[in-house]
Amino acid sequence: MEDGAALRLALDLVHIPWRVKVVRSEPLPDGVPLLLRIAAGETDAQVLAARMVDRSHDVVLEAAAFFIEQILLCPGADSYRALGTTPAATSAELRRNMAWLMAWLHPDVAREGEQSVFVARVTRAWNELKTPDRRAAYDAMLRATPSHSVRDGRTRLRGDQRRGSRFVTRRPPPGAPMGRLGRVLSILFGWRSL
Fold it and tell me: Which residues neighbour 17 within 8 Å (Cβ) at sequence distance 6 or greater?
């Protein structure tokens, strides 16, 4: 029996899209291969998933595609995540997931062709991980790179660490009169203690 954790999460994200940002920073749930099979057009996976969550095939397919686009192929995601796996995945799992993603992106499955923008991302991820030598080099690069933001792929720095940033934290001058809103904001942003 397939694990439906990823499917249930995908359905939640379709209805509560603000959670996408949070889920992008979390480890992938169990059951991502089921989502990939659904998106790739495997009828048996779509039927199984529809039964698991008591939803229509169309709803299940929409949720799988949304999860892949927003969680796996988001800007800044590493190549393992782009292929729906973790660094612990075997070469066979990487190859299988890449094949399902490419089947989903194939023009016969992606009727409107909107997903074609993801072909380059999946291809790049596969090229970085397809041989043991390339995978070892990619793993070494991940270890050498400081933690990065999944959102933009760059190192996340606090505002005062960014050089040349246009965005500066503004604080009220000492002793400036503040109304109720100012006091609330000062507490929230830690401008001063009351």
Answer: 70
193: in domain: no
Nearest CA among 1, 7, 55, 53 for reference residue 30: 7
Confidence of residue 187 (pLDDT cuts 50, 70, 90): low
Q: Residue 170 domain-assigned?
A: no
SS3 158: coil
3-state helix, strand, coil in the chain (%, to 5): 60, 0, 40
User: Is 34 in contact with 2 (CB distance < 8 Å)?
Assistant: yes
* 66 within a domain of the structure (yes/no): yes
Dump the DSSP string for 60-113.
Answer: HHHHHHHHIIIIISSTT--HHHHTT--TT--HHHHHHHHHHHHHHHSTTTSTT-
- Rounded distance between C-alpha atoms, residue 109 and residue 158, angstroms: 43
- Cα torsion angle, 82, 86, 87, 92, sign: negative
What residue numbers bound the domain in which 82 lies?
A: 5-144
Q: What is the pLDDT of residues 67-90, one digit of tens each?
A: 999 999 998 899 999 999 999 999
Stated pTM of the model: 0.72
